[in-house]
Amino acid sequence: MNKDSTRYANAALALRIGLGLVFVIGGLSKLSLLLSSSKQAAMVANYMGTTGYINELFQDYLFSNGVLTPWFFLTSLSTFELFSGIALIAGFMVRPLALFYGLLLWTFVFSLPVDTVPGASVGVKTYTSPAMFVQIRDITLSGMMFVLFNLGAGARSLDLRRGQGGGNTAPDWDGLGLLLRFSLGVTFIIGGFFGAYAKIPSFATYQIILALIGLVLIFGQGTSLKTAAGAVVLVMAWYMLQKLNLDKGVIANLNGVKREFALAAAGLVLMRLGGGERFTLSDCVRRTKETLGIQASPSAVGHQSKP
């Protein structure tokens, strides 16, 4: 395996661990409540209530037939979440799981109950920010899953030992780097510009800092991009320390910052590999000039120089 292949394999490993931790922690946390006779009713009520994660449309669609119950649905989903997280960390069936979760994570955006009608109130406590903003970290996780799908299982994976760890050719990192830095950047941009609104993650950090990090992640390249990626890791570490509560158990503390492990992993990958050159600020300027005819494209210049 050459040097570039090793770097991409290690990047896949970092993404697998970061994403896998999200599901292992989330699965353990939910199952510890759903399987407790004294806590399961409150857990189901929390998910089915006005500040839960399943709106009326999805509740009617899933449970109106009387066959599927909320407890069974949540318990089954949490069990699958736990085992798929373990599988991701171990590097087993990485591509199928990455594709599945890349699509599934968007359903959490669609199913969140929100009230954003101007001047209106439904009279109950619910989410009052757009669902896409509230769930922006899940959108980032979705983008990370598609990056992982293209990279393959990577280093230290069971899939690699089974001959399914990924292709032998280097991936198009310009494309995947764009997807990764854009996916990560939107979380910081939303936090930077809308973090003062209800239930939008701001990571206990000044909004202007989040906005700057997000903009550099999307439009930066080279040293500036890697510096912003390093800032992502620092912000995640700072937020985890701020969320630490010694009155809570280990699982409860980890559950409060589970997504941040994945965001930190994405930052580490961008620090190591960069984010490519596609649609960076300089690339956008070049494309704009070419479109306006201010400068010729490199291919056209090469063609004209031929005798």
Please describe what this structure looks like.
With 307 residues, the chain is mainly alpha-helical. Helices cover 68% and strands 0% of the residues. The protein contains 16 helices and no strands. α8 packs across α14, α11 runs antiparallel to α12 and α12 packs antiparallel against α14. The two termini are 42 Å apart. 38% of the residues are buried. The C terminus is likely disordered.
Determine the mean pLDDT: 93
Q: Could you say which overall geometry the principal axes of the C-alpha atoms support?
A: globular
Tell me the number of strands. 0
How far apart the termini lie comes to: 42 Å
Proportion of strand residues: under 5%
Residue share in helices? 55-70%
What are the low-pLDDT stretches, counting only 5+ consecutive residues below 50? 303-307
In short:
With 307 residues, this protein is mainly alpha-helical.
Can you lay out the helices and strands and say which pair or pack?
Elements: H1 3-34, H2 40-48, H3 56-63, H4 70-90, H5 94-104, H6 107-111, H7 131-134, H8 136-151, H9 158-161, H10 173-194, H11 207-219, H12 222-243, H13 250-255, H14 258-273, H15 281-292, H16 298-305
Helix pairs in contact: 1-4, 1-8, 1-14, 5-8, 8-10, 8-14, 10-11, 10-14, 11-12, 12-14
For the structure shown, list the relevant keywords.
307 residues; mainly alpha; 16 helices; 68% helix; disordered C terminus
